[in-house]
Inverse folding.
């Protein structure tokens, strides 16, 4: 069941838990985006792999693009 803040107050219910501000939520999401982007970059193949197999070069570009796209998710809100 979901209660509005006024209903909680009227019923004298007690909520014990975190209440995050929009700024805190934005900071948490930015941190998670950065961790995801770093994970993509970590998977990027080495230059030796790129030279020996063109597939790895395409994969590396895709991972860098994915990392950039993940980091830019917060710019649209």
């Amino acid at each position: 069941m979901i209660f509005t803040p006024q209903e909680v107050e009227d019923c004298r219910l007690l909520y014990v838990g975190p209440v995050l501000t929009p700024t805190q939520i934005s900071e948490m999401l930015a941190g998670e985006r950065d961790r995801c982007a770093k994970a993509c970059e970590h998977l990027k193949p080495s230059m030796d792999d790129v030279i020996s197999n063109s597939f790895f070069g395409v994969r590396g570009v895709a991972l860098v693009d994915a990392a950039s796209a993940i980091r830019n998710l917060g710019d649209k809100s």
Notes: The mean pLDDT is 78. The helical segments are 5-11, 22-43, 47-52, 54-71. The chain has four helices and no strands. Residues 22-43 form the longest helix (22 residues).
